[in-house]
Every structure is written in C-alpha cells, then in structure tokens.
Amino acid sequence: MKTILLVDDHKVVRDGLKFYFEDNAAYSIKGKAGNGEEALLFLKNDSFDLVITDLSMPKMDGIKLMEEIKTAFPQQKVLALTMLGETAHIKKMIELGVNGYLLKSSGQDEILQAIETIFKGENYFSSEVTNAIISELAGKKVQPSHSLLIDTELSRREKEVLALIVEEMSNKEIADKLFISQRTVDAHKRNLLQKTGSKNIAGLVVYAVENGLVDVNLR
User: N or C: which terminal CB in the chain sees fewer CB atoms within 10 Å?
Assistant: First the structure.
C-alpha cells in the first residue's frame, strides 16, 4: 500500500481528497497538513510515498515546501494540486523537480491517473498545464481556464445554492430551504458546474472555498 501526505490549508479540501481514497486498497492517507511547515514536520518524523500539495497556503506555500523537500528529501515524490494555473508557478515547480501538476478542477479519475503515473516512475501534467506551457512557448497570451476565474458571474440564487452545497445539504434539503423544486436545484447545479468549469460537486466546493464565495468555518 502506498502512503500519501495531503497538504492543503482548507480542511474541506483535505477531507474531500481523503474521500477519494477511502475505498482504494492501493493507497492510504497517512497524514494531513494545513501548510508547508506542518508538512515538513510530518516528513521529518515519518516517510511517505507521495506528497500531494496545494501551492497557495499561509506560513509556507507549496513552492517553498517544494524547495525544502528537494533539499532535505530529494527522493520524495510530489504532486502539485492547485488552483494556480499561471505558467510562472508551473515552470517554477517543474524547475524544482515536481513529479506532477494538476488543477483542482481535475476529476477523481484524473487525480488517480496522475498518482498511478507517478508511481510508475513517470511525470504527469494535466492538459491545461501542458497547454499553458505550449502557449507561452508559442508566444501566445495564456488565458486561465474558466474554472480559475474569480469573477465568474454567478446569480444570487446560484450563490445561495452553492453555499448550501458546501454545507453538504441534499437536493431536497436545498429545495426546502430555498422554497424551490428539486428540479430547479438540479438546474442550478448544472449551471454552477458549467460556469465554474468544475467536473463534480467536490470541484464546486473547492471552487467556492478557494475563491471566497462562501463564508464557511473550515478549521
């Protein structure tokens, strides 16, 4: 069984990622850290087959963590899983020797595919990441993917539905809370997925938290 250390400053994201592996006998989430400093403490006291880390975190971000890992634990495999799709971040992590780079809009299947690829001794970069690098090399202005845009236009009702999704309410509970039909809730969810570029409900939660669209206690 391969062991994984999850590093992300949002508890809901860490818990959501942990859910991806609960029924997978090949992997075990051995540790969860809220920032780079906590991650280094884990690595000094234990060993992990893979570190999955966000980039934007307080105290010590993912890039600084990667620098520290490559100095103190040069053989450690690392997968970046972040909302940051700018070429500067991607290139810096590649320069530091990251084994993979995914955007948080990636679905569960792609995340597992990336992990399997890394454990085979290969690198994995999502199509969005690869296209960003290629576009820059071609001299084009890189546009962030729709899921990365903070100013995505959401209606008031969509924001209300999104907030209740983050609270883990069912379609019926959301419908009762907002005095609308479950069919309308489904329609709002489809619109939210399309507007944010998210592939699933977990992606919507990540989007909402990362972009400050909901007021939720994550600690």
Answer: C
pLDDT for residue 137 is more than 50: yes
Q: Are 97 and 55 in contact (CB under 8 A)?
A: no
The mean-pLDDT minimum among 107-116, 143-152, 179-188 falls in 143-152
The rounded distance, in Å, linking the Cα atoms of 63 and 57 is: 10
- How many residues can be counted in the chain? 219
2-137 sits in which CATH class?
Answer: alpha beta
Residue 161 CB: number of other CB atoms within 10 A? 27
- 46-59 exposure pattern, b = at least 16 Cβ within 10 A, e = fewer: eebbbbbbbbebee
Tokens describing residue 93 = 């992590």
Tell me the two tokens of residue 165: 């999704």
Domain coordinates in residue numbering, the chain = 2-137, 149-210
Q: Is the pTM of this model over 0.70?
A: no
Rounded CA-CA distance 197/149 in Å is 9
Q: Classify the C-alpha dihedral 14-89-50-109 as positive or negative.
A: positive
The answer, yes or no, to whether residue 52 has pLDDT greater than 90, is yes
Location of structure tokens 């540790």:
31
Please say whether the dihedral angle defined by the alpha carbons of residues 145, 214, 218 and 211, taken in this order, is positive or negative. Answer: positive
* CA dist list (Å): 39 to 33, 47, 165: 5, 11, 29
Q: What is the mean pLDDT of residues 179-197?
A: 88
Does domain 149-210 bear CATH number 3.10.20.30? no
